[in-house]
Write a structure and sequence with these properties.
The chain is mainly α. The protein contains 5 helices and no strands.
């Protein structure tokens, strides 16, 4: 509930990220082994980390006094460099692991590589959604009002259901 609507958008982007990764793995006829699940969990962690970095940069820009639209654009632009650095470093590591490693290590590297590529797509989706649904229309000078309690409860329940579904699906695979 810390990020309100932005958090809901990030959760939906996380689900889309997981769907993209699993879709690519199904297309590749990949078998999801324990190292593959570890790569999937690392991808989820990196996606969440990217969203936290983005939202904290936006919050910093708002504290400085920037307008909301400007804070969102600047926050994403400043976070992009950090996120891209982490993703490129992880991709290089995954490619090295896939060439040097054997069976399970290659499964981990493949899942991680697909996940990182899907993460960059879901980050773009988050940015588009933020600009469409969170930033105000016009000059962006007004601060959006506090979210109603019913909306917070709905987002909280939805988030719990999303995480429960992910945990159930991981438990089902294991």
């Amino acid at each position: 509930i810390y990020y309100n609507l932005s958090g809901l958008i990030a959760n939906i982007a996380l689900l889309i990220n997981l769907t993209m990764v699993l879709s690519v793995l199904i297309t590749m006829d990949a078998i999801l082994t324990l190292p593959g699940i570890a790569g999937l969990l690392l991808t989820v962690g990196m996606t969440i980390d990217a969203n936290v970095i983005i939202f904290e940069r936006i919050r910093e820009e708002l504290k400085i006094g920037n307008k909301i639209k400007s804070a969102v654009n600047t926050g994403y632009n400043r976070a992009f460099i950090t996120i891209m650095d982490a993703n490129v470093t992880t991709l290089i590591t995954a490619f090295v692991l896939s060439f040097i490693g054997s069976g399970p290590i290659k499964g981990f590297a493949t899942t991680l590589s697909v996940g990182i590529m899907a993460e960059s797509t879901s980050n773009r989706l988050t940015r588009f959604s933020e600009s469409k649904f969170v930033t105000p229309k016009g000059d962006g000078s007004r601060v959006p009002s506090e979210m109603p309690v019913e909306s917070k409860r709905f987002i909280n329940r939805l988030t719990v259901h999303i995480y429960a579904s992910v945990l159930k699906s991981i438990h089902y695979v294991v």
